[in-house]
Structures are given as C-alpha cells and as structure tokens.
Design goal:
about 90 residues, YefM-like fold, 4 helices, about 60% helix
Length: about 90
C-alpha cells in the first residue's frame, strides 16, 4: 500500500485535508513525530477491506492446516449435514 508522510502537527492543524486525502487517494497517511513514523491513518473503507482480507487469509490458513493434518470430509457429507441442520432450524 502506498503511503503519504505528514508531520503529526498536520493532524491537528489540517484534519479535514488529511481525512479527505485518505478517503480520495485510498492511501495511508503516516504521521511522524520528530521525523520518525508514529501513526498510520486509513480511511474506514480501506480499514474494513484490510480487515476482511486479513480474516480471509486466516480462514484460508486454517483450512490449509486442516487439509495438511487430514481433517477433511467429502463435500457430499458436509452438504448433507448442512441441509439437515437447516431443516432442523426451520422446524423449530
């Protein structure tokens, strides 16, 4: 992800500008303190997308581990179990 570097004082003095910048550019703004990176600012959309991608990667890693360790079942059995569970829920 591309980033834009700004001094931390800009957050206080130019919040609206920074907010607009992260939303429109879809880039992170890195705020610096004494010339060193301190804080990253993302638009809410970018944060949500990044969180969703991270969750997907975690799920895929768990699935890969399941396959690697033989914790698998034929898809027909999985769908059969899901159908039975859905029917049971509908009959409650």
């Amino acid at each position: 992800m591309e980033t834009i570097i700004r001094p931390s004082a800009d957050l206080r003095n130019h919040y609206n500008e920074i907010s607009k910048l992260v939303r429109e550019s879809r880039k992170a703004v890195i705020l610096t303190v004494n010339g060193r990176g301190d804080t990253a600012i993302l638009s809410l959309q970018e944060f949500n997308q990044m969180s969703a991608e991270l969750e997907l990667l975690r799920t895929l890693a768990e699935a890969e581990d399941d396959v690697k360790n033989g914790r698998i079942e034929p898809i027909e059995n999985v769908f059969k179990d899901l159908r039975a569970e859905l029917l049971e829920r509908n009959n409650r």
